[in-house]
Amino acid sequence: MPRSLVLERKGELSLRDIPLDMDMGPTEVRIRVHTVGICGSDVHYYTHGKIGPFVVNEPMVLGHEASGVVIEVGARVRHLKAGDRVCMEPGIPDPASRAAKLGIYNVDPAVTFWATPPVHGCLTPQVVHPAAYTYKLPDNVSFAEGAMVEPFAIGMQAALRARIQPGDVGMVLGAGPIGMMTALAALAGGCAKVLVADLAQPKLDIIGAYPGIETINIRDIPAADAIAKATEGWGADVVFECSGAAPAVLSLPQLVRPGGTAVLVGMPVDPVPMDIVGLQAKELRLETVFRYANVYDRAIALIGAGKVDLKPLISLSMPFEDSIAAFERAAEGRETDVKMQIEMPR
Ligand SMILES: [Zn+2]
């Protein structure tokens, strides 16, 4: 039985042996896990025991942002071999489903996703995973960066949904990890510049260090005033709402230019009312994002080409033996921590 990081119940973690299904089918690969990022969702399950309808009712292994090394491949696997360095997409759809056939497998009702109850995650020494959702890393992309592909994929999905045109002015509300990933994906996707708004200055300082990013501290100036100033009153071509905060959602019609686009990335805890007429009066296009589909290859290509550097967003790496302490620190939500990672023992 593999020693894993187990969420026993709300507020209680342990490092212990737990029985996991390790059978490998002909289209699957066995992977030795190397690095796992701690996600806000992992922390939320730890502190709250649930996210929306997903409730932790029995012990569950946490973690879904992983990279590793292939150690065995199924008989029908062609594109991977033992020794390959890889990262894994944590959501597995039913390939025969209607959603999968449409290419929108992220919204397949049958999707299983690591560390979403009752599915175990990847903070465990080895995982068995479909080869089709396992991606080879270029030699110049580290395991730490490989484990960043999962959160970056959400930014990629947001940038794709926005249908950015070269030279667009982008705006991101919320400088959490996903806001930062979205800002970088929007830049890589063709935005001339991206303004990132938040009220936590340490977060703004981290993302503001990237060329092409300008920051707005909404304690000093309202986001609407800042974007008006930056665009001579016209508004942003694309605004990505990544905070999940109701006032930010409500402000979208004031921030987007006429005919522009608002992308809803952040997930408000409660339903948020919307200024419909505000949207209509500018004929804004509204897009939503749920996880991602078919973006891993693109994300890895951008990182491998050096067009996106996620390394400055990795705040701290801790050994697996200290993973409970790592989760406690993540739960503190320090404003200087972006992404914390756990390294599995060799
Ligand atoms: Zn995540």
UniProtKB/TrEMBL annotation:
Boundaries of every Enoyl reductase (ER) domain copy: 11-336
Keywords associated with the record: Metal-binding, Oxidoreductase, Zinc
Presence of keyword Oxidoreductase: yes
Keyword Plastid among UniProt keywords: no
Gene3D superfamilies: Medium-chain alcohol dehydrogenases, catalytic domain, NAD(P)-binding Rossmann-like Domain
Classification via InterPro entries: ADH-like_C (IPR013149), ADH-like_N (IPR013154), ADH_Zn_CS (IPR002328), ER (IPR020843), GroES-like_sf (IPR011032), NAD(P)-bd_dom_sf (IPR036291), SDH-like (IPR045306)
Pfam short name (any one): ADH_N
MF-aspect GO terms: oxidoreductase activity, acting on the CH-OH group of donors, NAD or NADP as acceptor; zinc ion binding
Superkingdom to which the source organism belongs: Bacteria
Cofactor(s), names only, from the UniProt record: Zn(2+)
Family, similarity comment: Belongs to the zinc-containing alcohol dehydrogenase family.
Protein name, per record: Xylitol dehydrogenase
Organism the protein comes from: Limimaricola cinnabarinus LL-001
